[in-house]
Design a protein that fits this description.
The structure holds 2 protein chains of 2 kinds.
Chain A: E1 5-14, E2 17-27, E3 32-36, H1 43-50, E4 58-63, E5 66-68, H2 73-78, E6 81-84, H3 96-101, E7 107-108, E8 111-112, H4 114-127, H5 143-156, E9 161-165, H6 173-188, E10 192-197, H7 200-206, E11 209-214, E12 217-223, H8 229-237, E13 255-265, E14 271-281, E15 285-289, H9 296-304, E16 311-316, E17 319-320, H10 326-331, E18 334-337, H11 341-345, H12 352-356, E19 367-368, E20 371-372, H13 374-387, H14 405-418, E21 423-427, H15 435-450, E22 454-458, H16 462-468, E23 471-476, E24 479-485, H17 491-498, E25 504-505
Parallel strand pairs in A: 3-10, 3-11, 6-9, 9-10, 15-22, 15-23, 18-21, 21-22, 24-25
Antiparallel strand pairs in A: 1-2, 1-4, 4-5, 7-8, 11-12, 13-14, 13-16, 16-17, 19-20, 23-24
Chain B: H1 2-9, H2 14-36, H3 41-51, H4 58-83, H5 91-108, H6 113-142, H7 146-168, H8 189-194, H9 203-220, H10 222-232, H11 234-239, H12 244-271, H13 282-292, H14 297-321, H15 327-340, H16 342-359
The chains are: A alpha/beta, B mainly alpha.
Chain lengths: ~500, ~375
Amino acid sequence: MTYVIEMLNIRKEFPGIVANDDITLQVKPGEIHALLGENGAGKSTLMSVLFGLYQPERGTIKVQGKEVRIANPNVANALGIGMVHQHFKLVHNFTVTENIILGMERMRNGRIDIHTAARRIQELSARYRLSVDPYARIEDISVGMQQRVEILKMLYRDAEILIFDEPTAVLTPQEIVELMDIMRKMAAEGKTILLITHKLKEIKAAADRCTIIRKGKTIATLDVQETTGEKMAELMVGRPVTFKLEKKQAQPGEEVLRIENLNVRDQRGLPAVKNVNLSARAGEIVGVAGVDGNGQTQLVDAITGLRKIESGRVLLHGADISSLPVRNRNEAGLGHIPEDRHKHGLVLDFNLEDNMILETYYQEPFSKFGVLKREAIRKYAAGLIEQFDVRAGQGGQTLARSMSGGNQQKAIIAREIDRSPSLMVVVQPTRGLDVGAVEYIHRRILDERDKGKTILLFSLELDEILNLSDRILVMYEGEIVGRLDAADTNENELGLIMAGAGGRDRHA
Amino acid sequence: MRKWILFFTSERNQKIIVPFLAVMLGFLVGALVMLFSGYNPVEAYLALLKGAGLLGNIKRFGDTLLSMTTLTLTGLSVAFAFRTGLFNIGAAGQMLMGGFVAVYVGVTLSLPWVVHMLLAVFAAVLTGALWAFLPGLLKAKFKIHEVVTTIMMNWIAYWSVYYLVPTYIPGHFNTESIPIKPTATLRVEWLTQLFHGSYVNIGLFFALAAVVIIWWVMEKTVFGYELKAVGFNGQAAKYAGMKVSRNIILSMMIAGGLAGLAGAVFYLGYTDNIKIGVLPSQGFDGIAVALLGLNNPFGVALAAFLFGFMNAGKLFMQSATAVPNELVPIINAIIIFFAAIYLMIKIWLQKIGKRFSEGGGDE
């Protein structure tokens, strides 16, 4: 059996850590091969080695059976290896064709020959059923379409091996299904696909084989058809993982949050939240689903006080908080797990213990008469680190920047939950986290609900919304277009409403 | 030998080692420059040390401390702003305006010594703070970058003093003010005697007190915590409920106040009057001091001492060895260059350290 790519016994160290200890990855031509592992398991490092960004300390790489040294990404490209990055690298005010030929423009009579290129893109698009318009501008097309432009970029450069780095993170459920089809189509045409992900469902749906790595080592390479999601998760995490959350029936109490006719504008001054009305009660989780960019961010900002509202009211425990500053809202019982942990959730240049008191530093016991009480802060932070199992090299003294994403997120969740707010606005709490961390964080959120707290959950992940929520609201173009009970809806229905295909209102 | 190398390359010690290396490299390159131009670097450096009083001359050492006093305060002004995410290029203007108001108070009021002096110093601090208020406000409310506004404020200060001095407190020449009254001076008899007639004055103690206070505020107080949070990540500070705009303005004003204090110690403690047509260079040297001091208050004091001694010694070096005193700015520039490539030096050190800790330091 010849492999199209072989990475044998790869070892890559960084000062203080071994990112790849002993990884072997063998990919057959024309297959969809998934690379599965927790955050920090070494997936990205391995792909960076394959893409020529890092040189391994040990091990060999073979492409089409020949041993190669991939000194830089240009070498990788020349070997037919292409990568679709998680964050697209596109020029927004260029057309699809202009983006694709960028860096390899062909000239004709002293001008760039757009039309020949566009014709070839049209052909490729038709062949792989991508339905991309070569003359559309990037800023006018959807995120899913933009991803296809990235794919076309690889195909245009005759890549034989395509690496997809967490490709579904930004897509709607329907787009994910389409992407899976495209991948299968490409594999059928003889391309080899390496899919980096930690979503087991996608691996089940698309991949032929799957290599699982844990703590820098290859654990197993499995035939996806012959295994189960549970088995893969267990191998990835190193212990059995539960998927379906044990969830008691919610016991909703009195109304905690009430939003009346809320209108909010975005940075450009355009209406982003339109006439939103919602209510959330004690002891329930209200999920807000929607495709990214349909007003969720602005709604969160309006509730938490990060953005001025245009009109309407936000009531917490019956009191209008819509014009209060953030501090007063926090003191009135609002907690916020923000969407972007680096932008809002943490001061990355502070150490962990200083981040643990980000909202409470001015209160006793953390300070007295304007002077910080280091002792109390240290003890408090150590307690949270212990209780929430936040892993940080030097405990409370660890620089937040140097921690892994999962542990950063745990730190934020620890801080917010410990403040014990009656309303918690939770936004994308598990983005980019692995199964083990997701399970833990979901558990903590459910615990808060069972303690009688109100949770308003915003997420782009339908699984998360469906697993956690008691009631579900769907946002589309700034409006709430669907109100559903979590118990009697499913992914398909939600996906259709999210895409704007007509609303549902089935709340009692 | 290996122990030494490991000491030099350890991550923990680099906060001290990198600035130290920058200074050493500065002197080394300075020596090379002298060798190439036909001077004896050993003689020149000895003269520099002697001129700065580091080889035993008390008065010259007093002058070194005098020069250090002003630089400590301007350096502190820049470093403080920097720690809170602001780049204060306006220390010169804040110092000049502070100095002008100090001199004005020193000239026009008649009060007993301590009261008069303290009032003049206080007026200078307040003026410096107010001079920085506008850039702070513009940054906080309209996101206008403080580099632009503080530079503009420098020139507004320059021309204001140009007009105000001859109009309100004209002196013997119309390019300078009349001298302050003796009741407003920062010089005290015992210090002058202790340092054999040097102009070193109690401004030095103000400066050292400022170093300790700023360190304490930054590291130990709720206010300092907020300022740093705003400086590192304004968005997260806003999320945490801090008043970001207010903190930016306050931070700028404190930086301005420190520069204003620099104006007070310079004009009330050294020159006794204020000249027009000069933007004090200490304001800009403060940037270098802050850089070399890694924006740490104590580091700033050390860096100010270094620059102070070179300032104090350079003229003596020129007369004693014929090495032009312009050599000193050359050395300063090289030191700043090496301090500015802090990260690169750090990476070099790490590479050396790694080789030695792995390879066992093959002797």
